[in-house]
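User: I've been going back and forth on whether these two constructs are worth ordering. Before I decide, could you fold them both?

Assistant: Sure. I'll take them in the order you sent them. The first construct and its structure tokens:
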Amino acid sequence: MLYKTVGIIGAGAWGTALAINIARGGTNVVLWSFDGECAHFDNVNMPDNLTVVQNPSDLADTDVWLLVTPASFVRETLHKFATVYNNQPIIICTKGADSKTHEFMSEVLTDVLPKCTDFGVLSGPQFAVEVAQGAPTGSTLAGTSQNVLTAGLQVLNLAHLDVTDDIIGTQIAGVGKNIIALISGYIHETVSSENERAMIFTLCCHEIIKVGLALGAKLETFTGLCGLGDLFLSATSPTSRNYSGGVAIAHNEKLQGTIEGIYAYETIVVRANKANCDTPTLEKIRAEIHKIIRKSAHYQDLFK
């Protein structure tokens, strides 16, 4: 099948960057925004074959959907689209977990759209602004069927795309890198010894992988673009919202934007406990971060 039109659900920085990049590659894009607005990037023009819409029904006849809303809004947003869903392959481009149910995004998707059998997960080292600017970008695409893999390979317009069937591992790698980036920013400010920082970083990575394996992930997934690649990007750069969020928490400062790592942290600990998987280092740092969060007026709304 030739996928001629992509429907993108979510017009934040990442959704808009994907829309621009896909349209730039020649595929028509319909970008849904809850308020009719989308992100804008300096010196980046919106392609003529990209249309911003506000009505979910405008995506009904598109050939493939990309889900790019923040994790906390995925369930609510999917309910809005359930009545216009027409068996399109769906690629989940959101890295995160449901903070109330502690489900990964693929589990939320199948809860809300049980008839969707062609779905995948896109994850990798991707700063939205660089994707919008056309910088070479590689990612991992995990899919349940050849349809969704074919759709991704046709439309995503990325410099390198690895494919796998490891849906759960690709998501845990994405969730895990948010947590590690948060921890990295936090310990950069609270731990003076570089040796100790390296030890904490490594032990936390080991525990994330251990949880992944306990939940059925493949080890090789964590060494790919969605694993090491994304970890290198997010856990070493102040540009990363999660890294900068960890720095802000260490100094009891207000957070800028949504810090997915805070909510993802809860999910990994809960899922680890359910799988009888020991994560002592993750839980120790989590307790430190929670002590600050619970006492600060800056963070009162985080877990409401």
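The second construct, handled the same way:
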Amino acid sequence: MDKMWAGRFSKALDKEADDFNSSIHFDSRMYKQDITGSMVHAMMLSNQGIITKAEYADILNGLSGILKDIESGKLPVDMEAEDIHMFVEAELTKRIGDNGKKLHTARSRNDQVALDIRLYLRDECEEIGGLLLKLIAVIKDKANENKDAIMPGYTHLQRAQPITFAHHLLAYAMMFKRDFERINDAVKRMNFSPIGSCALAGTTYNTDRAFEAERLGFDGIMMNSIDGVSDRDFCIELMSAYATVMMHLSRFSEEIILWSSWEFKFVELDDSYTTGSSIMPQKKNPDMAELVRGKTGRVYGDLMALLTTLKGLPLAYNKDMQEDKEAIFDAVDTVKKCLSIFAPMVATMKALKDNMYSAAQRGFINATDLADYLVKKGMPFRTAYKQVGTLVGYCVENGTVLDDIPLEKYKEYSELFDRDLYNEISLETCVAKRISAGSTGYESVNEQIDYIARFLNEKGIH
């Protein structure tokens, strides 16, 4: 295939250099966005009298046929083409003749690729947003099922205070809600059209950039043509948001991996989302969660690769910027795969409530409540803190727990202790007494579930 830019050159590009230069093997996925943008560009050219109505009709018919044939499989993308833009334009010219050569009037591949990637990422962000909403809905439902499941809450991976499993799960619902909003915010800043910026300086033709932007669903145009072709901030911002999604998935994965181990046994993953061992018949491995955790580093790497690529580039367009696509495409694909597998894995995950409760009974996680008990009876908190610490030391030395210390022994430490202390430090009471907004108390957890449900309803998820 002849290069569209071959007129300046007296010899063909070296085959190895041609392959090195080509982007068709990864940017071909943007064929729909490329053709859609070209259709609107041709319409604008016609409206402005730059091409005739008949030429526009011919171009539109040709582009529609190419799109239909690619999607049906009738027209395979030629991997010998330099990029998807050149493939479409060459195929159009092949089909309709010289009118196809008029399509590229008043634009450059520089603004064309900037347009395509914005359109492509806008579509992908909508799909990723939908996957996030599905995961949030799964977490909300799983929390609703486990409002009465008491487990140890941890700090420093040490048992700290009693909480409900629902409360713990809802923390992830809040994280993924922010991820959804973060991606949407990034899309708002991305949603400005670069087409018409041309190579970098604009064009001498009387174009209507606002028309193209409006027809393609943008909120406006890039106001500076140099910025229009050289900006990849939106890729960085989206990849940062994707990296944050993966970080949250990885944290959740880590907990699921711990919870499903024999040392915890708080949850059991469905057989559909685990694997076995080739030599140890007893094994049930949380491979899906481990893979999500592992793929997080991949998305971080994509972000760092693009940041590094862009950091030293002068304005405007440089061929280095071709490296944006493989990184952002890989990040998109990875996030989509991980979200797609994660939601059903959590949905089918079984909470082992008795094991959670048993673990919560150990570790002195009601010690803070015992200190609060003394404070409510008039003892300064720091004094109460030290008193309860001494009692915990006694328990450790004698192999007992706070719930089982006789009242007579409590009285040796303070006359403020009375028989009502046992109810005050029961796990159920410890949870129920958490009445502050956002806490693990039953009423608060219900409010959190309702909050997430309202958010999902606003997004059409019922």
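Notes on the second construct follow. Residues 367-425 form a domain with the Ribonucleotide Reductase Protein R1; domain 1 fold (CATH 1.10.40.30). The first strand starts at residue 150 and ends at 155.
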